[in-house]
Protein: ribose-5-phosphate isomerase
Organism: Urochloa decumbens
Amino acid sequence: MGSAATAPPPSVNLTQEDLKRVAAHVGGDAAAAASPPTSGKLTQEDLKRVAAHRAVEFVEPGMALGLGTGSTAAHALDRLGDLLRAGALPGVAGVPTSLKTELHATRVGIPLLPLGGDRGPARIHLSIDGADEVDPDLNLVKGRGGSLLREKMVEGAGERFVVIVDESKLVPRLACTGAVPVEVIPFGAPHTLGLIRKVFDGLTGFHARLRMVKKDVEEDTLFVTDNGNNIVEMFFKDGIHGDLHDISDQLLRITGVVEHGMFLGMATTVIVANKDGTITVMDRKI
C-alpha cells in the first residue's frame, strides 16, 4: 500500500479567543511544563518523542491498550517495547489500529489482542495515538495516513484516549492544514465522491477528490486502506466553519461512506510538545 505525498501544511496561528476556548475545555493547569526548556533546537521528531514518552507514563501494569498509527504513535510503541523488555509493565497488551502498527508492535515485543470476541480484552483501558489536527475544543482530524476506520473503532472502544502531538498540530478550526479523509467502499467510489460533492458544494472553499498514489512513473492508482477501501479527501479553504456534528451526520448518511476522520468529543487528554521542550497537558472536562 502506498502513501500519498502531501505538501507542507500552511502555518496557522491561534488567536487569543482560540486560546480562551482551549482554557474553557481543559481541566487543571493547561500549560503544565513536564520538562525544562532546552537550549538546543528541538526537531519535530524530538517533539513527537517527548509527547509520546509522556503519554506512556499513563500506562499501568495489566492494561489493555489501543495502539495508534503514525510517526508520533511509533515513538510510543518504541517506548512501550523498552518498558516491557525491562519488566516494568507486566501484563500489558495492545490492540493495533493498522497492519503497520501490528508489525511494529510485534517487532518491539508488545503482545497483541484482537478487538472483541473471546480472545479480545474485556475493555480497552487506554488508547494512545497522534492526530493531524487538534482544535480548541479537543476535536481532532485523524487518518490522513489512511487508518481512520480502525483507529476510530479501537479508540472509540476505550475508556481513555490520550492524543500526542507537537504544537504545529493545534489549529483554530478543523481542516485548516489539510484534508478530512473519508473512507469509502471501492464499488462506485467515483459515484460516492459525486454524492459527497453534491451535499457539501455549498460550503465556502470546499472541494473533494479521490486520493491517488503513484503506481509507477507513468500511472497513478487509487489509494487502498488496510480494509480494502478507498479514501475521499475533503478540503476546506479556511477550515470548517459549520457545525462539525452536522457535517459528520450528513457524511455518514451518504451510501458508500464507511467512516470519516473527524474524531469529535473522543479525546480525553491531549499532550502537546512545545518548541521550547515543555509539555502542555489538556484534559477534557466531562
